[in-house]
Specification:
Elements lengths: L20 H43 L5 E2 L2 E2 H6 L1 H5 L5 H13 L4 H6 L20
Length: 134
């Protein structure tokens, strides 16, 4: 049947441990265990930081007002040039880009209204007319 540990006989290739070999092996095991625990803890902390950073980035990107780029000019560039647009001090090529932006951009619609509509910029807005009845 099963033999107890104290009844077993050492095998022929067994030799007693020399000097402090058992102590060295125990220290190596403790060092490995400590290193493994440190790496697990560090991984958990880094994972948590990554999750927080990802959540922050997602919320920030969803709540930030979008910057459109219609006509080769961005909303912030149009806003910065609003006085020059009002006073018609922009070169014709740049005014053309601004008009393209203002006709397409949903964010800049209030600026168009503030400037007096597209007619003020020299571009008439399309008008829907009722067909004449004969």
């Amino acid at each position: 049947m099963t033999a107890h540990l104290d009844e077993r006989q050492p095998s022929d290739d067994w030799q007693p441990a020399a000097g402090d070999e058992v102590g060295r092996l125990a220290r190596r095991l403790r060092t490995r265990r400590t290193r493994r625990q440190f790496l697990k803890g560090t991984g958990a902390v880094l994972g948590g930081l990554l999750a927080v950073a990802g959540g922050w980035w997602t919320v920030r990107s969803l709540t930030r007002e979008r910057e459109y780029d219609f006509g080769g000019i961005t909303c912030s560039e149009v806003m910065a040039k609003s006085e020059a647009i009002k006073n018609r001090q922009l070169p014709p090529e740049e005014m053309k880009r601004v008009k393209q932006h203002l006709t397409r951009c949903p964010r800049c619609k209030p600026l168009v209204e503030q400037l007096g509509g597209l007619e003020m910029l020299g571009q008439a807005a399309p008008i829907c007319r009722r067909p004449e009845v004969v």
